[in-house]
Structure formats: C-alpha cells, structure tokens
C-alpha cells in the first residue's frame, strides 16, 4: 500500500506534464508579438509555469521567441525551433539585443556594399556605352552633312561647267560665223569695174 502512495505523486506529475503538453499542442495560438531574450543570460524553457516543471530546452541572449501568453510571473512562448514552453517573466524585450542588431547591421552593410559595387560597375558600363554612342552620333552627323552637300551638288547646284561650255561653243560659233560672213561677202559680191 505504501508503494501506491509513493507512485501517486510521480503519476500525478507525469499526468500534469502530459495534460500540459496536450493543452500546449492543441492551443498553439498565433504569435501575438515577437520578443528576444535580454541581457547575458541562459533561461530554461519549462513545460509549465513553475520551476518544478521539466526543462525542455535552454534559451540564451539573442534567441528570438514568440509570446503566446502572459501570466503572473511567467510567460508562455514559442521558441525558434517550434518548442512551446514557459519562462520566468521579465527576461524579454521587444527589440533585438545590441549584439544581434549589430550583426544584422553588419550583414546589411555587406549587402549594401555588394549592391554599391554592382551599381558602380553598371554606371561605368553605361558611361562607356554613352561615350561610344556619342562618338558614333558625331560620326553619323558628319557623314549626313557630307551626304547633304553631295546631294545638293548632284541636284543641279553644280551645272555651271555645262553652262560655260555651252557659252563657249556659242561664242566660238558666232566668231566663226562672223568670220565666214566677212570672208564670203568679199568674195561673193558683184565685181563691177568701171
């Protein structure tokens, strides 16, 4: 009979742990807010809100947890690995500790430097491309000017050599005609001698 009474507290403790585990698993509500373990400490995540409950895991400074419920002196949380349990109240803060924020900021700086290098390289490529396009544009403008001049010349702006040649032929013809007329009028005229 004595054994039954000795086993009864052990059975009750096991039964309360199982009941708490079932209640925690079934109740698993959505996280209300995020929080981080503060200060340089290590906390025991327990199965219930009392130091006599079994330890599920150990949490340390910088571990992010989700707050599920707050009671007097204890806070029910969900750890990053998904474990649900209780920790003493007063060890959570709404922002990440400075060491975690520093690590996050250092990571952001590394990412931003990478982005800056990429943007700088792209800018240099665009500048080089812009320089090449500007040179090509200047060459094309010069070629267009040359083509416009040639086009004007071909359209008739350069006909003066033909006109001079025509005028020259006309002048030569007129001179030859006058000379011919003078020479022929002297010979063809009636000769009357009296």
Question: How would you describe what is shown here?
Answer:
With 194 residues, the protein is α+β, with helices and mostly antiparallel strands. It has two domains: 2-96, SH3 type barrels (Roll); 97-154. The chain is built from three helices and seven strands; from the N terminus they run αβββββββαα. It has a five-stranded antiparallel β-sheet, with no helix packed on it. A two-stranded antiparallel sheet has the order 2-3. A hairpin with a 2-residue loop joins β4 (64-71) and β5.
Label the overall shape: rod-shaped
What Rg do the Cα atoms give? Answer: 54 Å
Assign the CATH topology of the largest domain. Answer: SH3 type barrels
CATH class of the largest domain: Mainly Beta
Question: What is the helix fraction of residues, given as a range?
Answer: 55-70%
Q: Can you say what the CATH homologous superfamily of the largest domain is?
A: SH3 Domains
Number of helical runs? 3
Say how many strands there are.
7
> Could you spell the SSE succession in H and E letters?
HEEEEEEEHH
How would you summarize this macromolecular structure in one to three sentences?
The chain has 194 residues and is α+β, with helices and mostly antiparallel strands. The chain has 2 domains: 2-96, Roll (SH3 type barrels); 97-154.
């Amino acid at each position: 009979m004595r054994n039954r009474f000795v086993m009864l507290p052990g059975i009750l403790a096991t039964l309360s742990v199982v009941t708490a585990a079932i209640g925690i698993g079934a109740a698993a509500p959505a996280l209300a807010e995020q929080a981080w373990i503060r200060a340089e400490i290590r906390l025991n995540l327990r199965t219930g809100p009392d130091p006599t409950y079994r330890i599920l895991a150990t949490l340390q400074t910088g571990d992010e947890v989700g707050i599920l419920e707050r009671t007097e002196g204890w806070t029910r949380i969900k750890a990053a690995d998904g474990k649900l349990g209780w920790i003493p109240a007063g060890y959570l803060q709404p922002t990440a500790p400075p060491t975690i924020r520093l690590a996050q900021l250092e990571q952001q700086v590394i990412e931003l430097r990478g982005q800056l290098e990429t943007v700088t390289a792209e800018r240099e490529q665009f500048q080089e491309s812009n320089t090449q396009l500007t040179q090509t544009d200047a060459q094309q403008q010069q070629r267009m000017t040359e083509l416009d001049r040639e086009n004007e010349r071909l359209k008739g702006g350069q006909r003066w050599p033909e006109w001079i040649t025509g005028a020259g032929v006309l002048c030569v013809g007129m001179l030859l005609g006058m000379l011919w007329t003078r020479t022929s009028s002297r010979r063809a005229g009636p000769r009357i001698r009296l």
